[in-house]
Amino acid sequence: MSHNTFGHLFRITTWGESHGPALGCVVDGCPAGIALTEADIQPWLDKRAPGQSRHVTQRREPDQVRILSGVFQDERLPQQVTTGAPISLMIENMDQRSKDYSDIRDSWRPGHADYTYDAKYGVRDYRGGGRSSARETAARVAGGAVARKVLGEAVTIRGALVQIGPRAIDRSRWDWDEVARNDFFCPDAQTAALWAEDMDAVRRDGSSVGALVEVVVRGVPAGWGAPVYGKLDQDMASAMISINAAKGVEIGAGMAAAALRGEDAADEMVLGPDGRPAFTSNFNGGVLGGISTGQDLVIRVAIKPTSSIRIERRTLNRDLEETAIATKGRHDPCVGIRAVPVAEAMAALVLADHKLRAEAYRG
Amino acid sequence: MSHNTFGHLFRITTWGESHGPALGCVVDGCPAGIALTEADIQPWLDKRAPGQSRHVTQRREPDQVRILSGVFQDERLPQQVTTGAPISLMIENMDQRSKDYSDIRDSWRPGHADYTYDAKYGVRDYRGGGRSSARETAARVAGGAVARKVLGEAVTIRGALVQIGPRAIDRSRWDWDEVARNDFFCPDAQTAALWAEDMDAVRRDGSSVGALVEVVVRGVPAGWGAPVYGKLDQDMASAMISINAAKGVEIGAGMAAAALRGEDAADEMVLGPDGRPAFTSNFNGGVLGGISTGQDLVIRVAIKPTSSIRIERRTLNRDLEETAIATKGRHDPCVGIRAVPVAEAMAALVLADHKLRAEAYRG
Amino acid sequence: MSHNTFGHLFRITTWGESHGPALGCVVDGCPAGIALTEADIQPWLDKRAPGQSRHVTQRREPDQVRILSGVFQDERLPQQVTTGAPISLMIENMDQRSKDYSDIRDSWRPGHADYTYDAKYGVRDYRGGGRSSARETAARVAGGAVARKVLGEAVTIRGALVQIGPRAIDRSRWDWDEVARNDFFCPDAQTAALWAEDMDAVRRDGSSVGALVEVVVRGVPAGWGAPVYGKLDQDMASAMISINAAKGVEIGAGMAAAALRGEDAADEMVLGPDGRPAFTSNFNGGVLGGISTGQDLVIRVAIKPTSSIRIERRTLNRDLEETAIATKGRHDPCVGIRAVPVAEAMAALVLADHKLRAEAYRG
Amino acid sequence: MSHNTFGHLFRITTWGESHGPALGCVVDGCPAGIALTEADIQPWLDKRAPGQSRHVTQRREPDQVRILSGVFQDERLPQQVTTGAPISLMIENMDQRSKDYSDIRDSWRPGHADYTYDAKYGVRDYRGGGRSSARETAARVAGGAVARKVLGEAVTIRGALVQIGPRAIDRSRWDWDEVARNDFFCPDAQTAALWAEDMDAVRRDGSSVGALVEVVVRGVPAGWGAPVYGKLDQDMASAMISINAAKGVEIGAGMAAAALRGEDAADEMVLGPDGRPAFTSNFNGGVLGGISTGQDLVIRVAIKPTSSIRIERRTLNRDLEETAIATKGRHDPCVGIRAVPVAEAMAALVLADHKLRAEAYRG
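^ inputs. structure came back:
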């Protein structure tokens, strides 16, 4: 059963609500002997943290991570390392303002999980969205940072935003170095500038907008994954759709594969300059039959617009009376921006798991 | 670990290769007391079976299913019912012509899993694609038929083909009754006629083409699914991407969600004519926060063009020499057509599992 | 994969080392709407806590539990309840004296997991036994307290010590009320008095002694459990052997079943005074074919003597040199005493899980 | 969820009833490239098969196994090998005499799972015990044969019967070679002779008797297993108690550990003649902290007397009327005898799984 656990051999169990005392993540199945301190995790949390530009929520969530277990150092070890025991990561919640929640307590916010949580559980922690809050993704990012350490230097996981609302980047201008330079993880500087204008308008309108995240993984050797129901791309799809607000996922050509013809879509094989198998294209996104080809893994995930908007929408209250609701307070006008480090983390978690699964059968 | 098992409480384990003596499926976790005979399963297999029109492969696979365990009837029971024990379903392979496989034994077919299986396993049953053959999906369909019995009459799962190659249906002409009348599971008669022409051209060219499958599920009550990593849409995405040749999956608005604004994407709630909660739209495809809303579930999956084409493509052989390969024999020019009953079956499997998971917490 | 998670639908993931900052437990799969505060958990931890008599370790571990997530209360709810979200329980470690660990750092203590951890992981947190410390069982007890709330009043789980060293209780004097009155969870006052003398001698010798724990569960209805590999007694056996120092487990007649004849061992069925099925004996310990009969569940687990003793034993150091080691410091001379609440907790965890599994198929 | 699946990375899913058309086993997670034919499996089934002496049931079950998937051979491969795909094993049921089952249809046989199956499922395949029949163990033995191939020559798994009824072997006469020479898998020839007399008396009385099986595994390296909830001995206990009629399991000293003192129970470490770590005793049965020590694994399992006896016992029928029942037909007077190869198979399954799990973390 999945519940709040993701992964098989390498896995995380996350816990915590938006406005509880803390949230966290137990990383289980991490190999022993891997150097790990909080400094390996914190930068990824900082990348996800709000308040870094005017385009994301202005909440204050410093998101300082603490490692509570699973690491060890003594005078004989040059650095702190994992021991193979579960690694408990905790982030205390700092910005828990006492607020008036009567609005969202009694009414179901459209596009949110309010109604479905009530339908399923009968009780709901509505403060800041409770368990359905995007704050849970901080725990994913923390776990993903450990996964990156398991993967090591050979595997590079990079995410970028390739579309905000109707405006997509120009792929001919893709520059990975640009991603860190703008407020949008955008690999195309010109589009980033236009997005800044777009976003100002969206915020002014009290609205929000969707986005498209792309994750590219380099360095996965051929042979990770498994056929049928243990497919690498299947686990990637599962990981990506599990992210809050995700509505679609693509591997390689993705939905566009429907429009292709066989002679175009088949990634032909040739001998690479290093004398190893190479491909003339990557419509399959680095996966064939559920198993990695050694090419870049290419995954895209569509994030819907933030449901918390200042524009009033119709809804019902818990007494089944029609009413209307508008969200106050500080919200991301494009939650897709901060989904970039989350999608990277999910990719790392899937790959660390599949790395170990591949090791089990290395023979 | 997943390997060849799909599902948690209700689950299937499939086995078998394209050209082995048989293939099958063990359905485990089926409740007791459900009426079940081979006649409940066979029609769904027949729907998936090849040879039903000129647009699909002309192989002969009668796909007769046998129930080997898990059912019982005596003179006191009016009909054969499940006992709660595992239900073993077996389909014998009939059309195993002895062929010359030296081509695909030595060379990796582009777009197929040949290279990745060799990379992972070192050995490969290349006869008809072995385990990576679409024949494995017959076992899914058989298992899905049992899942439908678990779901009962209240839940209706229907699939349709909404795009072949670049040509999409006109949604204003959607007619579910039409789906059974043409060779394409197409809900739009006019488009079906055009597809017939398109497909004749594709076959003439020795090529193949992609397609888009849409599955719509009616009757799922609000409250199935679970947050975070047990999401209903997450399991749907996992199920759909696990289908051979699938490259993308969408829930509700899907990839188009990226282009939306918050006020458009939020499915507003109103009081329905029956005095129960209703929605003014369904951009979320019937799932919010991983839990069903009671609306129709809407899932789309993109199927890439069949990689087996008569047009020669470049590739490598196992000695890493550059060569070329063209596929001979009888292949589906659009494997997406027969993916429709497979996608329906996967949806049924996910829902039967989530129904039981919901029951566990009904309290 | 199990790793540090126990259970399926209802499950715990524990983390933490003996001398780290904290230890804890994530309870996942708990139904919503169950009243739960720290006061429901603390008494069970207190029962397990050391320092309560001269017969257990004199370490100071107040073991104050905090609930960090998964519960909620507002002005409309009469009490704090579970929300269905994961319940994170944390216990801070208080008594972490800075000590000289060079002895156990370099040498493998006989009977402990030192050598095997080194063989498996290459690195070992030796402070207080690290992850292999019995402190981990505090997390089990905390999780078990939540499991008891899931089971409710109808199910009563009681444990007792029935043997210390070679001296067993007289079962004809069994009195459940006596269990809370002595230092040994002993249901036989006379034996408890003798044990006190035995234990004084053992402590004087710097030795330790084994014990036998019996858990009796009343109120489980007929029909919990599952055949073949989901057996209730199988999960009980797994749960009990997972307790530190456990070497054997018995269901009902247990090992003595080997000596029985069929006509004696078959628990005959008769009509009970309430007109319901009853049994004339309980050699099967309340389980037939892996499924509960409605009788008391009876489980026994043998706990070996504490391996930490003041008597010097031969061993090797990490340089593979022969040496000798004696344990200093405060240790339980009979770890079996404090295993009683742990075994109760494990029984509760198994039963909460099987209750939910049974619900899933209630139909 | 376990249901009918056992294991994690290496696992089996078994199916089939006593009197259905067939029973079988899907072995999933078997590494590729392992030589495997039916000849590797059949001898273990023959060892378990009934009818081999007057001391076991005289039913005729030739138990011919067929491999339906997961293996491959072509002209380039010197022998048939596994491909990494699921291995489907099927055994057809031959001896399905049409019988009058009205007795066991309407009444619950004491000591059998009849009542509990009815309580759980409401419907029951009573023919020959249905799913609860010991015939299911043929599937375990078939799966265990594959597990042995995964373990290879380095690991030796041997089982023996060490007690029948009240009579135990004399361990000073233990001779592994003797096990194959008598009808009881008994390592002590003198005791075997006495058992033959005992059994003749038991059969004459129409009764049955319990037994004690011991499994000894040589060649497991130090470091297999995992702490806390993934313990090697925990999985062994789970495996053994899952065998029909098992009521207790012991690791090393087992239940007797309760009576020991610390200085006796600690297996001291010394330098072995090969310069590697060795132990002076094996009270821990080859496992410390859930991880193998490199010593022999020693596991014992108690099997209760066969519940099917000719002596009439009281019971209830489904109308809750008191009645009596005696079993007719051919039954094992000591089901413990044929449990020996089953216990060996379960040990093999646990070890193949843990071998792969250890590989995953070999680093």
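The longest helix of chain B spans residues 335-360. Residues 5-362 of chain B form a domain with the Chorismate synthase, AroC fold fold (CATH 3.60.150.10).
thumbs up if we can close this ticket
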